[in-house]
């Protein structure tokens, strides 16, 4: 089972992934962007350099293609949990590019290997504002609160339009509560 954990910046994906690694130690855990050696270089460019939206799109696609080819395809029969996926890739890019073109580019980059189940950690505006105030912003976060909330809605739309099963979890709950719910979803999905 290939499961994606999605959510906008500060939703708690990284925290939850670290907790899940202790619980599901026979799963393969990956992330986008930056899981492969090439991906790590691309991640630095994406988040630190001032690049065009089109260049950003192609760098994310290059990272995704490398991850699928080198990591996901060879392990497709295992349980895989990814911190971000094609879902957020399309969701972020939808703000600047046409949906069907993005789907086709991502199908090409991934050999049409998309997550089979998506868990979206959803934040309300107040929690997002509070969490963003406690950190330094990267190039994506600098686009603002409304931009990030639109991306969150886009993630749901992408799952609906691609007909990928998903579940929404309230990311403003305690870390323990969110973790409990995620573990429940994963246990049901893989059994």
Q: What order do the helices and strands follow? A: EHEHHEHHEHHEH
**Global shape:** globular
Number of discrete helical segments:
8
Instruction: Determine the structural class based on helices, strands and strand pairing.
Output: alpha/beta
Poorly predicted runs of 5 or more residues: none
DSSP strand (E) fraction? 5-15%
Instruction: Tell me the helix content.
Output: 40-55%
Features:
55% helix; 191 residues; alpha/beta; 13% strand; single chain; 5-stranded parallel sheet
Task: Describe the secondary structure blueprint for this structure.
Layout: E1 2-7, H1 13-23, E2 28-31, H2 37-48, H3 53-72, E3 80-83, H4 86-93, H5 99-110, E4 117-122, H6 125-132, H7 145-162, E5 166-170, H8 175-190
Parallel strand pairs: 1-3, 1-4, 2-3, 4-5
Helix pairs in contact: 1-8, 2-3, 3-5, 4-5, 4-7
Summarize the structure in short.
The chain is built from 8 helices and 5 strands, in the order βαβααβααβααβα.
What can you tell me about this protein's structure?
It is a single chain. The chain is an alpha/beta fold and 191 residues long. The protein is 55% helix and 13% strand. Strands 2-3-1-4-5 form a five-stranded parallel β-sheet, with helices on both faces. Helix 2 runs antiparallel to helix 3. It is globular. The mean pLDDT is 93.
């Amino acid at each position: 089972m290939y499961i994606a954990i999605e959510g906008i910046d500060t939703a708690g994906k990284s925290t939850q992934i670290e907790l899940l690694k202790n619980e599901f130690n026979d799963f393969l855990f990956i992330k986008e962007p930056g899981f492969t050696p090439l991906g790590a270089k691309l991640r630095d460019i994406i988040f630190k350099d001032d690049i065009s939206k089109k260049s950003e799109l192609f760098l994310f696609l290059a990272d995704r293609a490398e991850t699928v080819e080198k990591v996901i395809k060879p392990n497709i029969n295992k349980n895989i949990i990814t911190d971000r996926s094609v879902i957020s890739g399309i969701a972020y890019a939808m703000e600047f590019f046409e949906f069907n073109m993005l789907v086709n580019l991502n199908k090409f980059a991934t050999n049409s290997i998309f997550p089979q189940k998506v868990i979206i950690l959803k934040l309300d505006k107040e929690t997002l504002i509070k969490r963003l105030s406690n950190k330094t912003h990267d190039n994506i976060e600098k686009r603002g609160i409304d931009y990030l909330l639109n991306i969150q809605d886009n993630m749901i739309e992408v799952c609906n339009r691609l007909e990928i099963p998903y579940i929404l979890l309230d990311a403003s709950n305690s870390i323990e509560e969110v973790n409990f719910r995620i573990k429940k979803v994963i246990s049901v999905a893989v059994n």
